[in-house]
Amino acid sequence: MSHFELATRLAKEEFRILDAIEISMRKFEWVPMKNIIFYSRIDAERVQFWLDKVHKRDLILRHGGGRKNEGYALNSKGYDLLATHALAEENVVVSIGNSLGVGKESDVYQGIGPGNEFLALKFHRIGRTSFRNIKSKRDYVVGKYHTSWLYMCRVSAMREADHLKRLNAIGVDVPLLKGNNRHVVVMKQYDGQEIQEFDVIDDPAGVFDNVIRNVKKCYREARLIHCDLCEYNIIYTRDKHVIIIDWPQAVPTDHPNAAFFVRRDVENICKFFERHGVVADPAAIVDEITCT
Ligand SMILES: Nc1ncnc2c1ncn2[C@@H]1O[C@H](COP(=O)(O)OP(=O)(O)OP(=O)(O)O)[C@@H](O)[C@H]1O
Ligand SMILES: [Mg+2]
How far apart are CA 248 and CA 226, in angstroms? Predict the structure, then answer.
């Protein structure tokens, strides 16, 4: 059964249990029973019954280990379910289908929207590979509560949604944002492939100019730098448009390392298009993008 179907079968008490655990995970790695009783507003003697039910559905983890660490936590399936349920309630998503891609830090699924349009749902999975590393590297989570994976995934998705919204507003070629809930970003789905998958590109110089034009517009009008721009994060559509994806890590142009990030983005693009016969001078392009 998909998460989506499962969400339609859950009793309201089960959602209350999940909500109560989610709220308390801001403070606790393992949420104690008394918090679940308090936030779920379920009679104390019934809470265990509903907890067992949700546990059996594999939406939460139970941790024994002595009084102090005893408690419950959402697992990623439980968190997915809360997000997709909310997106369905908001009428952003009507159904969820196959996987479109598994990234290092996300799972992307196809969805259908209320107008029967195809959607891409990106589930952020920060720390899937190395939670410890991420904790120290991601500057935007330092100093906030205890940094749970759930919190980091949510922040990452919110940042991506925020960047897409700003870029949509000024017409940069990025996915059209349809919605965001918790760690999920919902976008329009584009019919195409990562540009790295093409052995031959028609008019590579034209496509290259197009990418650079977008980088420049993004820098000058949204004051943003992508910071992970490369051939894996550009979709080349069937109707020959470029769509630049994957925006959680973008930073403002006044970031202390901004100069380094722009240069790296531009060099990556130049290097890729050089393989398709495009001759370009990265330093000159960077100057053109950043000159005031
Ligand atoms: N709007 C979209 N339309 C169609 N496909 C998409 C869309 N967004 C993402 N995808 C697909 O999902 C893949 C992963 O997306 P994205 O690059 O945003 O995630 P990621 O986890 O950061 O990936 P990685 O860490 O591997 O770079 C993309 O390469 C693309 O194939
Ligand atoms: Mg990517």
Answer: 8
Domain assignment present for 207: yes
As given in the structure block, the two tokens for residue 250 are: 């973008």
CATH at residue 181: 3.30.200.20
pLDDT digits 0-9 by tens, 184-200: 999 999 999 999 999 99
- Domain stop point among 55, 77, 99: 77
Alpha helices in 90-228 (DSSP H): 131-137, 149-170, 204-221
Query: Looking at the 3D structure of the chain, how many domains does it have?
Result: 3
Q: Would you name the residues annotated as active-site residues?
A: 228
Q: Answer yes or no: do 178 and 131 share one domain.
A: yes
pLDDT tens, position by position, 220-247: 999 999 999 999 999 999 999 999 999 9
Ligand 1, atom 19: nearest CA belongs to which residue?
103
**CATH number (domain holding residue 67):** 1.10.10.10
Residue 42: predicted pLDDT: 96
Note down the domain range covering 108: 90-188
pLDDT reading at 144 higher than 70: no
* Pocket flag, ligand 1, residue 106 (CB < 6 Å): yes
In the predicted model, what is the mean pLDDT of the chain?
Answer: 92
**8 A C-beta contact, residue 106 and residue 122:** yes
Nearest CA to ligand 1 atom 21: 103
Tokens of 128: 């899937």
Same domain, 156 and 219: no
